[in-house]
Amino acid sequence: MLLELRELSVSYGKAVALANISLHVAEGEFVAVLGPNGAGKSTLLKAISRSEASTGALEFRGESLQGHPAHAVVGKGICHCPEGRRLFPELTVLKNLMLGAYLRRDASAVAADLKVVYSLFPILEERGPQIVSTLSGGQQQMVAIGRALMGKPALLLLDEPSVGIAHRLKIEIFDAIKRIQQSGCAILMAEQDAQSALRVADRVYVLENGHVARSGSSDTLRDDDHIRRIYLGV
Ligand SMILES: Nc1ncnc2c1ncn2[C@@H]1O[C@H](COP(=O)(O)OP(=O)(O)OP(=O)(O)O)[C@@H](O)[C@H]1O
Ligand SMILES: [Mg+2]
After folding, report:
1. In a designed cystine with 72, which of 35, 68, 159, 222 is the match (CB 3.0 to 4.6 A)?
2. What separation in Å is there between the alpha carbon of 49 and the centre of ligand 1?
3. Distance from CA of residue 183 to its chain's centroid?
4. Reported pTM
5. Rounded to whole angstroms, what are the CA distances from 219 to 30, 148, 165?
6. What mean pLDDT value characterizes the chain?
7. What is d(CA 51, CA 43) in angstroms, rounded to the nearest whole number?
């Protein structure tokens, strides 16, 4: 298994944000995590990238990530595109993208991956020398995803890539994420837009109050009464 969590828990002081979560992602799979505000989606991704401490089993390709620092997890092939993008707004598009490759020494492969990012998001090649703070929100999200890809992930963690983005760009971004999966990279994506997530993901976990409330294939969950009522509004 690429990623496997068993009984994973995270607390902030006395508040339990994740309680005994078990989930997995197979090689090349596209898995979405749905759930309302405060459900624990971002906490889950932070626990996986080791930017938040957790208890329980956290394994990548059979090896425990517990105790490893966040940069070591990047080196193993897990790249996190965080909530709110966290770009360097005063640096150029190209500098921000290249920061995603800071651990890599394979210059020619890095150059090839930059070409891959540009083919996914052609606007970024055109805007390479532009200062990131002057891009639109959707374009900044493309930079954030592109930066994570520059780390050459086997597993890409995406935290609400479509939040605050106009419908047209949102479709473009989800289609690009689908193409990233088709290139062989597994994806674990937190998302509140259930409709879009069910369209692109193979499998879905629904988080509510730090617990897994539902899980299954997108096809199954699309017909689930609870999902239809609460998340699809139908
Ligand atoms: N650094 C922190 N310190 C204390 N509590 C936190 C911290 N980060 C998150 N929490 C709490 O943990 C719970 C889960 O938060 P989390 O950010 O994981 O939710 P989320 O599902 O990503 O929500 P959203 O959709 O709004 O981004 C919330 O109750 C939140 O208030
Ligand atoms: Mg969040």
Report:
1. 68
2. 16
3. 16
4. 0.96
5. 13, 29, 26
6. 96
7. 9
14 lines ligand 1 (CB under 6 A): no
Tokens of 173: 């971004």
Atom 24 in ligand 1: residue holding the nearest Cα: 37
211 with 19: CB under 8 angstroms? yes
Distances (CA, A) of 61 to 25, 56, 184, 234: 10, 16, 15, 39
Domains and CATH numbers, the chain: 3-232 (3.40.50.300)
* b/e sequence 176-211, b meaning 16+ C-beta within 10 Å: bbeebbeeebbbbbbbbbbebbbebbbbbbbbbebe
Q: What is the pLDDT of residues 87-116, one digit of tens each?
A: 999 999 999 999 999 999 999 999 999 999
How many CA atoms within 13 Å lie on the side-chain side of 48? 32
Distance of CA 37 from the midpoint of ligand 1 (Å): 8
Q: Kindly compute the dihedral angle of the four CA atoms of residues 194, 199, 203, 208, in this order, to the nearest 10 degrees.
A: 0
Q: SS3 of 227, please?
A: helix
Write the CA distances from 137 to 196, 198, 233, integer angstroms: 18, 23, 27
pLDDT of residue 216: 97
Across the beta sheet with 155-159, the strand order is: 78-81, 155-159, 186-191, 30-34, 203-208, 211-217
